[in-house]
Amino acid sequence: MVFWKRMAGLTATAALAFSLAACGGGSGSSNGGGSSDAGGGNSAQTTDGGSAQNVKLRIMWWGSQQRHEATLNALNAYTKLHPNVTFEPEYSGMDGYLDKLSTQAAAKNAPDIFTLDPGWVADWAQRGQMLDLTQAIDLSKVDKKVTAVGNVGGKQYGIPLGSVAEGMIYDKAALDKLGVPAPKNGWTWDDFFKLMEQIKSKLGKNQYATKDYAGDYFAYSAYQYAQGKGQIITDDGKFNLDQATFIAWATEWQKLRQEGVVPPADVNASDKELDPTGDLMVKGTIIFRLSFSNNLVSWDSIKPGAYALVTMPRAAQAGGWLKPSMFFAVSPTSKNAAEAEKFINWFINDPDAGKILGTSRGVPVNNDVAKALQPTLSAADKAGIDMYNATLPDGQQWSPGAPGWTNWIDKDWLLVRDELSFGKKTPQGAFDELKNAAKDYES
Question: Could you give the residue ranges of the DSSP H alpha helices within 259-329?
């Protein structure tokens, strides 16, 4: 789903817009929400005094409760501007999102507007499941390095919604209570593993230093890149999982598992990120976990002031990366594509939309909107931008890699992840399984 290259200035303009020196994630669901049905010969008065056909747009996204609320507020604001347009929102956490959307798309019943992870865009575009938006959306104020990920075969299928940095979040209140110094930006993977063991020695029963990331694709990807071994899948579709690096990583986590530094497999598997009752960090079961820079706001809304961010550990190279957070796409089967396109233009380019949405999807992609938003940032927002800016100078630049590998990452790798966590595969066995499975995908 995600691969990286060396950082070459991705979204530098947007990031600098938030730099003080320069300018001095719960889950929920909805069964729908629009107040009028599409069509039917009805019309509504528009803000310019004209009238237009009533339209209901289905729109689908994933995220935390904070993102849900911000997005719903944006939808309501748009309807006030355009009373003929109402929405039927479908939203949830990340778990199960792709399966649900894929089922709808296969049945030619996808929402008018839906959200995609950057790593999914190429495959979806090649399957003809996204409308070409090249001429429809104004991207003049958006960094070309961000829009490039949504461009397939010279056509703009995906519209970026934000930019984020990958790092870690930790329970700073718990660390203070334990008397353990907090990590600093620029720390190394050696520092990380030593700190996890130090933390465990001070914790009580059924408390752990970190989630078990032995088989986590994103955590390991950052580790392999930090070791100077490149991305797991090359841009031309070649398997590049470094055997010695992967085995060393999985062996280290195996040791932490045996020492009780990470939760047992069943507890680890029960984690529901950003769920107030299911998130292991929120429950006090773990201290550290992975996080994107924009997600601190969501965790802070659950326990204000409790958490802090730090850059991804590094080694020979930086471990953290910067990437477009997600994309909007329009279904090619939508009967209201023109209205969907107008809404997306407003969503990414209108300053008032930017104020409503904040950093719920990362640094806004429109550079003017990003600059205008800065005075309104909360402390949690600013902390997210600080981590983003700390990653920026030499962080890894995200690359979607070669198309066609989605199932290897989302299914084959997840199977191995569980086998490692439950002790059903040795590190060598896990590597061999991933290598054999990759043969079906290599170009």
Answer: 265-269, 296-302
Sign of CA dihedral 373, 379, 381, 387: positive
Nearest Cα neighbor of 351 from 329, 322, 375, 385 is 375
User: DSSP letters along 139-207, please?
Assistant: -TTB-HHHHGGGEETTEE--EE--EEEEEEEEEHHHHHHHTPPPP-TT-BHHHHHHHHHHHHTT--TT-
Query: Phi/psi of residue 111, each to 5°?
Result: -60, 160
Q: Which residues contact 123 (CB under 8 A, 6 or more apart)?
A: 403, 404, 406
Answer for the pair 319, 387: CB distance below 8 angstroms, yes or no.
no
CA distance 309 to 169: 4
> In the chain, what are the domains?
25-164+324-376 (3.40.190.10), 166-322+400-438 (3.40.190.10)
pTM check: above 0.70: yes
Which pair of tokens denotes residue 85? 């347009």
Q: Which residues pair with 308 in a beta bridge?
A: 170
| 96 C-beta neighbours (distance < 10 Å), count | 11
Count, in order, helices (H) and strands (E) of the chain. 19, 16
What are the tokens at 170? 């930790």
pLDDT in tens, the chain (443 residues): 333 332 333 333 344 343 333 333 433 444 333 333 333 345 555 554 445 799 999 999 999 888 999 999 999 999 999 999 999 999 998 889 999 999 999 999 999 999 999 989 988 999 999 999 999 999 999 988 789 889 999 999 999 999 999 999 999 999 999 999 999 999 999 999 999 999 999 999 999 999 999 999 999 999 999 999 999 999 889 999 999 999 999 999 999 999 999 999 999 999 999 999 999 999 999 999 999 999 999 999 999 999 999 999 999 999 888 889 999 999 999 999 999 999 999 999 999 999 999 999 998 999 899 989 988 889 999 999 899 889 988 888 777 767 888 889 989 999 999 999 999 999 999 999 999 999 999 86
Geometric angle at alpha carbon 68, from 66 and 71, rounded to 5°: 110
